[in-house]
Amino acid sequence: MLFSQFQKKEVINIQTCKKIGNVSDIEFDHCTGQIHKLFISKGFQICNLFCPTGDIVICYNDIKQIGPDIILVDICSK
Questions:
Q1: pTM summary value
Q2: Contact (CB, 8 A) for 56 and 21
């Protein structure tokens, strides 16, 4: 899978059944290729121009399934 294909997937939290955002970056082990973390962009918001909130970081253990269109994660809401 290409990274550009990975970035198009929506990330859904199975705890709330809501979209979190889209993949903006990943952290992986360069030797094994295993994903360690996903960085999720919340999308463009006008407030981000003046008060950036940063990306949401999701650990590998919280990823439940990577499908053709979405990524399901299990994280507690804040």
A1: 0.75
A2: yes
